[in-house]
Amino acid sequence: MQLIDIGANLSHESFRHDLDAVIERAREAGVIQIVVTGASEEESEAAWQIALQRPGVLFATAGVHPHLARAWRGSTARRIRALAEKPQVVALGETGLDFNRDFSPRPQQCDVFEAQLSIAADLGLPVFMHERDAHARFVEILKHWRDQISRGVIHCFTGSVEELDGYLDLDLHVGITGWICDERRGHHLRDLVSRIPLERLMLETDSPYLLPRDLKPRPRTRRNEPMYLRHILETVADSAGLSAAALASATTETARRFFDLPDMT
Pick from 252, 239, 191: which is nearest to 33 by CA? Predict the structure, then answer.
């Protein structure tokens, strides 16, 4: 089985000492391509630099997370756009709205989200999006831009059936993480994943975050990494009533189309 992890924060400091080993473990687990998430100006630059080192295997996104919208400046917009024009950068983001923690003022989050949607529309790039406790405002903004952006994915979807159906109605893709493996807060996703058409479903680890809670044996550290994507695949497949092989084939093909990645077979 071949898998694609559409969201891994490999520029995180926890990977600095053993990134090569992390990528090799992922390869041994069937993860043949990884999209490295950019969530700030600095992290987007780092994600691009990491992708440069492993052509055809690693790719990057470029964007500013809503937590950091308060730091957005004209220079930020110019740098994100310049990075987004690099061939290794396959999506604009991580961008969106987060009204759960409100680390940046909500009006500023909205403005920065729209600014990044504008860049994506200009460049014809798909958008890698974050939304938490902001569904109504998120949809309101996105409806205005939906016809102007090529493709969009709701990264790390954790919401309700109503929110899921709303995103599917907007012709969005959906990323599922190890949240589905969390019996405390993610179990409802097991009843929802079968509603997602296979041509819209993708898998991600969000490494180093969201280590699946039901891994056995438990890893010695809480750091998540791309090799655990196979465990997420198996949980999603079981929940959707599919074989792991069938789901791997479908989600890999979907990810390749969405990000326009080369076929490594």
Answer: 252
Q: Kindly list the structural domains of the chain, giving each domain's residue range(s) and its CATH number in brackets, ordered by start.
A: 3-259 (3.20.20.140)
Q: Are 38 and 13 in contact (CB under 8 A)?
A: no
Q: How many CA atoms lie within 13 A of 106 on its CB side?
A: 12
Judge if pTM exceeds 0.85. yes
The residue assigned the tokens 């893709």 is 173
Q: For residues 127 and 154, is the Cβ–Cβ distance under 8 A?
A: no
The percentage of residues in the chain with a pLDDT greater than 70, rounded to a whole number, is 100
Q: Mean pLDDT of all residues in the chain? A: 97
Among 141, 125, 135, 143, residue whose Cα is nearest residue 44: 125
- Bridge-partner residues for 91, per DSSP? 61
CA 132, CA 127: separation in Å to the nearest integer? 16
Q: Look at residue 172 and tell me whether its pLDDT is greater than 80.
A: yes
pLDDT level of residue 220 (50, 70, 90 thresholds) = confident
Residues in the chain: 265
Backbone phi, then psi, for 50, in 5-degree steps? -65, -45
